[in-house]
Amino acid sequence: MIALHACDTATDHAIHRGIAAGAQLIVCSPCCHKELRPQLRAPGLLAPLLRHGIHLGQQAEMITDGLRALLLEAHGYEARVFEFVSLEHTAKNKMILALRRAAPLPAEPVLAQIRAIKDFYGVREQCLEALLARPAPPPADSPAR
Predict the structure, then answer these.
(1) What pTM was estimated for this model as a whole?
(2) Can you tell me the distance from the alpha carbon of 71 to that of 138, in angstroms, rounded to the nearest whole number?
(3) Is the pLDDT of residue 145 over 50?
């Protein structure tokens, strides 16, 4: 599954589709990061740094893509987040790469990390997490009930 410059929560929807389809490889280049920024609470010690809009925006990007990588890991993938284009060409040069593991690791320790990060920053809702929490729809060829 490949999604390039998927703005805001479109990246979450693309990753969700990849996970739901059991994709062996998920490659995403996230673009805008608007969902978490208004939710973020600047933890005490970081408040003086995050009062500057640019730092808050960078923090929101890091938290958003970090949570996406952790959610991929909790759902059976090995995930990496890295720059893939030189900053001289674009400021939006982040890539999330996830490879499906042959033997998934236990999800609970990763889910506990996600909860702790969300609590620390005051994140109430994250789109990918919400999508993954929904029950999977029945296969298209199953009889309607």
Answers:
(1) 0.88
(2) 22
(3) no
